[in-house]
């Protein structure tokens, strides 16, 4: 019988490079990783597939799942709910898969209440100036949005002490290697418990 998979939470401010780091970490098949698929009430976009991009549900269905305690974490953004379905995550973990959630700080706090053993990792930029340069470098957002993202990043950085690990993304490959080592060490500890 294989041991239960880890629940891994990755957070960090917008523009810090979470997605890029995760792509690198996911290449290591020995880590037995799976992304959690979120549930949402937002409309499906062209090309998106239910059960692949998101689990698409109605607002009533989502709110019922919350009332029934079936959400590991959730939040409302721009009039739509987004969250992590507990049953889906537990199914993967019971199969021995390590499940990664890439979620906001508030979502992480909800997860920690339900799963105190969750492996929580916060990605930080080398500096706030560097983060601003990365966000501006995308050239995709108006100044007002950039300022909102930077203000949010400042408040998120104050939550570092809520995480087990803090990893600086000064170099994507190095940050990915550090996260891989952290996950592998926790996999070994998990195996020792069995």
Number of helices: 7
Strand order of the largest sheet: 2-7-1-8-9
The CATH superfamily bears the name: P-loop containing nucleotide triphosphate hydrolases
According to CATH, what is the topology?
Rossmann fold
- Number of discrete domains: 1
Helix/strand order: EHEEEHEEHEHEHHEH
In whole angstroms, the N-to-C terminal distance is: 9 Å
Q: State Rg.
A: 17 Å
Estimated share of beta-strand residues: 15-25%
Largest sheet: 5 strands, parallel
CATH architecture: 3-Layer(aba) Sandwich
Helical content stands at 40-55%
**Ranges with pLDDT <50 over ≥5 residues?**
none
Mean pLDDT over the full residue set:
92
The total strand number stands at 9
**Class from secondary-structure proportions:** alpha/beta
Shape: globular
Question: For the record, what CATH class applies?
Answer: Alpha Beta
Description:
The chain has 194 residues and is an alpha/beta fold. It has one domain (7-193): 3-Layer(aba) Sandwich (Rossmann fold), CATH 3.40.50.300. Helices cover 43% and strands 21% of the residues. It is built from seven helices and nine strands; from the N terminus they run βαβββαββαβαβααβα. It has helices spanning 18-26, 59-67, 86-94, 105-114, 128-137, 143-157, 172-193; strands at residues 7-11, 33-35, 39-40, 55-56, 71-77, 80-85, 98-102, 119-124, 165-168. The strands form two sheets. Strands 2-7-1-8-9 form a five-stranded parallel beta sheet, with helices on both faces. A four-stranded mixed beta sheet has the order 4-3-6-5. A hairpin with a 2-residue loop joins strand 5 and strand 6 (80-85). Helix 1 (18-26) packs across helix 7 (172-193) and helix 5 runs antiparallel to helix 6 (143-157). The chain is globular and about 50 Å long. The chain starts with 6 loop residues before the first strand and ends with a helix. The relative contact order is 0.22. The model has no long low-confidence stretch (mean pLDDT 92).
